[in-house]
Amino acid sequence: MKIALFSDIHANLPAFSAMLEDMDEQAPDAVYCLGDLVGYNVWPNEVIAEIRRRGVVTLAGNHDLKVENLISTPENLIEPGKKYAYHLVEHHHREYLLALPAHIKLEFKHGHEKLNIVMAHGSTRSVDEYTLFDTEEKQVLEMMEEANADLLFVGHSHKPYHRILESNAGVFKHVINLGSVGKPKDGDARACYVMLTLDKSSSVLDPESVKVEFRRVAYDLDIAARGILESPLPDEFAQGLFEAK
């Protein structure tokens, strides 16, 4: 089974469109989004509309939750600053964002083999908590034990990695950060997402049996940057796209 997972689009429609084109070519059996559809750019409504049109199962990210209790006025839509990005989100899309779940849990079984997958935006404990490549191993394993997770997928940091931890003798756990579609921070400006492949051989006993592929997709950075520069958003958001940090 092929599963596509992505996160942190941040209203970057050019990056999202390029990623979707590549993803469709991979013909995944299932697709999941780990949140942060909005913020930092000017196309939140187009991004949300496409997510909803495709019926992609989606989590709430910390930026998605910023639309709660947000009062938008004509003045908000011309006032410079970071909050402009959230005022752009149409009311019906705000309702959608605020109804999204915090976690997704899946269980795969092949005979006696079982793999529990947990998806969260930041961590299983908080939407705002970072799960980094160098987060203390004990802390990560405790968190995965609490969530009953063999595979933990997260976003939030915009820095992709696949980390394999041995929880006890011969049992391996996987932590995968999806990186970011629309605002990478790992020095590579291309959109990033993950293709996960599981089959009847996939097992917690064999770390190589879980196949994780990070796919990077080039897109038109100039168009994405222009969207920011021609809006009241801070100009440094545009530079951040090119620097990928």
Characterise the protein shown here.
The protein is α/β, with parallel strands linked by helices. It has a single domain, classed as 4-Layer Sandwich (Purple Acid Phosphatase, chain A, domain 2). It is built from seven helices and ten strands. It has helices at residues 13-26, 44-54, 84-87, 91-98, 137-147, 221-229, 236-243, and strands spanning 2-6, 30-33, 57-58, 103-110, 113-120, 151-154, 161-168, 171-177, 191-197, 211-217. Strand 5 (113-120), helix 5 (137-147) and strand 6 (151-154) form a beta-alpha-beta unit. The mean pLDDT is 96.
Topology at a glance:
Elements (H helix, E strand, L loop, with lengths): L1 E5 L6 H14 L3 E4 L10 H11 L2 E2 L25 H4 L3 H8 L4 E8 L2 E8 L16 H11 L3 E4 L6 E8 L2 E7 L13 E7 L13 E7 L3 H9 L6 H8 L2
Parallel strand pairs: 1-2, 2-3, 5-6, 6-8
Antiparallel strand pairs: 1-9, 4-5, 7-8, 9-10
What is the CATH topology classification name?
A: Purple Acid Phosphatase, chain A, domain 2
Number of strands: 10
What's the domain count?
Answer: 1
Order of helices and strands: EHEHEHHEEHEEEEEHH
SS field, number of helical segments: 7
Cα-atom Rg, whole angstroms?
Answer: 18 Å
Question: N-to-C terminal Cα separation, in Å?
Answer: 33 Å
Fraction in beta strands: 15-25%
Low-confidence sequence ranges: none
CATH superfamily: Metallo-dependent phosphatases
Question: Could you give a short account of the major beta sheet?
Answer: 5 strands, mixed
- Judged by helices, strands and strand pairing, the structural class is alpha/beta
Strand order of the largest sheet: 3-2-1-9-10
- Architecture in CATH? 4-Layer Sandwich
Overall shape: elongated
| Mean pLDDT value | 96
- The helix content is 25-40%
CATH class: Alpha Beta
